[in-house]
Write a structure and sequence with these properties.
The chain is elongated. A hairpin with a 6-residue loop joins strand 5 and strand 6. The protein is built from four helices and six strands, in the order E-E-E-H-H-E-E-E-H-H. The protein is α+β, with helices and mostly antiparallel strands.
């Protein structure tokens, strides 16, 4: 999307992805990121990132805010990986492909590992807040059920004629 060169298909973990030999970016068709992760685990991200490198003469350009999808030429949308990470990826809303800049796969792996580690050590604030919300909903639902039972018992004694 940035270099305007033909991409080279490469096979990683049985998945063919398109790579740029100029900037080291990788284009995944829809579903290929999850296929690679399912077959190679989180470490596959770093492994691929190490194998796909920019050419020595590549000069990093300014971040292109309006990238074009290498597959269908639609404008790609920038989004934050896993909603809370500091990694930004580019996705095509038309065909579902994802463009990943050089180095971002390793950042994705690092983020997944840090999230997993933080979940093992202690529940984070968001998880505690969600649990408290679910408890409040459960209590409110229980109270509604109890009220409905009370009304049903009261109406059972009322003569409807």
């Amino acid at each position: 999307p940035d270099c305007n060169v033909n991409m080279v298909p490469r096979n990683f973990f049985g998945v063919s992805v398109d790579t740029c030999e100029t900037c080291g970016g990788i284009y995944f068709d829809e579903g290929e990121v999850s296929q690679v992760r399912a077959r190679g685990g989180d470490k596959a991200f770093e492994e691929i990132d190490n194998l796909v490198q920019p050419s020595p003469e590549y000069m990093q350009m300014e971040e292109n805010m309006h990238r074009r999808c290498p597959s269908c030429s639609s404008t790609m949308r920038r989004y934050r990986y896993m909603y809370t990470s500091s990694v930004f990826l580019d996705s095509c809303e038309n065909c579902g492909g994802i463009w990943i800049d050089n180095g971002e796969l390793k950042k994705m792996k690092d983020y997944l590992e840090s999230e997993r580690a933080s979940q093992k050590t202690a529940p984070n604030a968001e998880a505690r807040e969600m649990a408290a919300t679910l408890d409040a909903i459960s209590i409110a639902d229980h109270e509604k059920v109890e009220r409905a039972h009370w009304i049903a018992r009261a109406m059972a004694f009322y003569p409807w004629r």
